[in-house]
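Our consortium's second objective concerns turning raw sequence data into structural hypotheses that experimental partners can test. To show how far this objective has progressed, the report includes one record in full. It was chosen at random from the queue rather than selected for favorable results. The single chain below, 523 residues long, was entered without modification.
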Amino acid sequence: MLILSVHFPARRYHASPWDRHVNEGEVEWPPAPWRFLRALLAAGFAVEHWPDEAVPPLARSLVEKLAADVPSFRLPAAASAHTRHYMPIRSGRSETTTLVLDAFLRFVDPDPELLIEWPEVQLEPAELELLDRLLPAISYLGRAESWAECRRVESADESGIWCRPLAHDREPAGEVVPTLCAVAHADYAATRTAGVQQSLAVATAESGGKLSTARRRKLEAEWPADVVDALLQRTSSLRGQGWTRPPASRLVRYDLPAPALRPGLGRGPAPRAARETVDTLLWALSSDTVRGQVLPSLTRALPQAELLHRSAVSRLGASGNCAALTGLDDVGEPLRGNRHTHYVPLDLDGDGRLDHVLVHAPMGFDQRALDALRGVSRTWAKGVGHDLVVSCAGVGRLPELVASLVRDGHRAPAVLATSATWASVTPFVLPRHPKRTRHHLEDQVRAELAARGFPEPAAIELFDRAELLDRGLHRFVRRRRPGRPQPPLDRAFGLRLRFAEQVRGILAIGYASHFGLGLFAAE
């Protein structure tokens, strides 16, 4: 048995499957063994300085042994994602743009490791020594953005997400994925002999006589001499010769488990108890317009959160209530404690526009809620603003999601920090109409904090007009769509809350606090 480990330091994998256009948005997963063998040969030319297309016998023996066996893969947890680019096309003085998709996998694990296991391969000591020299020279797998660190390991933990070849007599447990593999050296030799004879026979019949030596050699050259020569062929040459699939290759059906491309924490399918404790999901927003990225202003946090909420709830269908998303119990009564879903607007790049939304439910998400949230892919503006493309960037517990944002190079959002002093980043709107003798602003703030389990504040300070305008809180949309509850008093307040102890966010109170209003950031 031979086991190789591939780490992805950038936590991304970019590769298009064979015979699929890059703009189809498909990602080759698991990585094709054909691709890995080509990367191994490329490493040999780079570090062993082999002459052009002259692979030494020891390397040929190594590659042929790997080609004869079909490997299995232990896959790190990953989520599919993509970016969109409008590339210029110039024709004379005119210029247009074309949409180009860059699809990739984003790994959830901070140190993603792919294991490739060849169960039947037995290598000689010299072949193992050569393999150990070649593996560190593989700097990427797939496209150049897919940085890789490869090494040989002695054993593999059988737990985790394993993707194995699908036997003909077995029903798939997940998705069936055709994957490009090499064939055994002996099998290809027989296929090549039959193919060359057929090509010569067809050419002889078409010419009506004997073929010239040059014509015969050209037809024979269209078939690589062996598996290693086939791996060295350029894709452009294969296309030019009319090959729909590389010679010496075959498509092997792999059984890709359902959790392999679903965002999650850690390796492998999480146990049921762990899945039920997931309480946070992160959405990344992008816009699909010919003018490039036109994301909504942060001041439109409320209407954008409502659009996302409606889209998620619509995916529940008629299969019953989901308390975490709807905020209602099984008999239609509102839940107490505000433990259902909050949509927290985030501006991670600091440009004043809404680029991420954190979806958090203190009560946790069950599988139906997670499936509905993962199913949101677009929001339709219907003439107000721009349609948004929504992709899931992570799922897990709130502290772990915050840590993953920091690992990705983002500054930890202040709305998710810990502090004794908090200030408004979206306007606080009174949830009840103030009376002359009760329900004053301070009374309502204290009641809202108590209802959400926060300690009694030591001081509540109201922003003066200058600070309110300076922070732009007056510009925020503060009314929900028609037919939904409206604010008792349509007025924006800015507050600074001081506590006697450290308080951890998310701190959101007041009217529409589940949709982005009344949000505070740590100072």
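The partners drew two points from this record. DSSP finds 14 helices and 19 strands in the chain. Residues 263-276 have pLDDT under 50 and may be disordered. Both points have been shared with the crystallography group to help prioritize constructs.
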